[in-house]
C-alpha cells in the first residue's frame, strides 16, 4: 500500500430544504422566492426555503401561527407530496451510491457516505464532485460535511449549510475547537431537549465544552450515548 494517508472519512450529504427543492424542480417560477411545505392535513411547516427562513418562519410552526407573515410576504405554500419526495430521494441516493455502494441512509434527505478510500488530499474535491453530480442528475442542491466521525460530519454539515460553497471538510484540520465552540450543544447530533437541559445545568453550552469534559464525569453523570458523542467529537 502506498504512503497515502487513509484516515476514516465520513461525508454527511444533506439535501437543502429538500421538500421545497423538490417542488421547485417542477415549478421554476418559485425559485428564489419564499416557499414553505406543510405537513399532512396542512398542519405544520415542515420545509422552508432560505428566503422563508429570513422572514422568521420557524420549522415545525403551525400554519395558522405563520399565516400573517405568509400572506403579507406572498410566500408560496404547498401541501406535502410524499410520493414525489420519495421518488427524488431514491434518485439522490442512487447517485450517491456511485461514489460508494455502501451508503447509510439516515433519513429521506440525508445519508452518510464513507469516503475513506480517497486520500486526505483528494477528499475535498470528491465532495465538490458529489455536490455537482447530484445537482446535475437530480436537480437537488446539497450541503456536505466531511470528517472522521459521524458526529463531526454532522457538525461540518451544519457549518457547510451557511457557506456559499455548501461544503466543509474537517479532515486535516488540527484544531477544531474554535469551530466546535460556535456549535450550540442542542445542535450536536443526538442531543435532544432533555440532554440539552442536563448539559446546561452542568455548564456545558457548546460542542467544544462537551468534547473537553472528563471521561469520569461523563460515565458518572449521563448515558452511554453522550459518552459516545463526546468521543466522536474528539
Radius of gyration, CA atoms, in whole angstroms? 19 Å
Distance between the termini: 27 Å
Low-confidence runs of at least 5 consecutive residues: none
Beta-strand residue percentage? 15-25%
Strand order of the largest sheet: 5-6-1-7-8
Question: Could you give a short account of the major beta sheet?
Answer: 5 strands, mixed
Overall shape: it is globular
* Number of helical segments with 4 or more residues: 11
Give the class from helix and strand content and strand pairing: alpha/beta
Succession of helices and strands: EHEEHHEHEEHEHEHHHHH
Mean pLDDT: 88
The overall strand count is 8
Helix content: 40-55%
Could you characterize the architecture of this molecule?
By secondary structure, this protein is α/β, with parallel strands linked by helices. Helix content is 43%, strand content 16%. It is built from eleven helices and eight strands. It has helices spanning 18-25, 50-54, 63-72, 82-96, 123-138, 150-160, 177-181, 193-201, 207-211, 215-221, 224-233, and strands spanning 10-15, 35-38, 45-48, 76-79, 103-107, 110-114, 142-147, 167-169. The strands form two sheets. Strands 5-6-1-7-8 form a five-stranded mixed β-sheet. Strands 3-2-4 form a three-stranded mixed β-sheet. α6 (150-160) links the parallel β7 and β8. α4 runs antiparallel to α5 (123-138). The longest helix has 16 residues, at 123-138. It is globular and about 50 Å long. The mean pLDDT is 88.
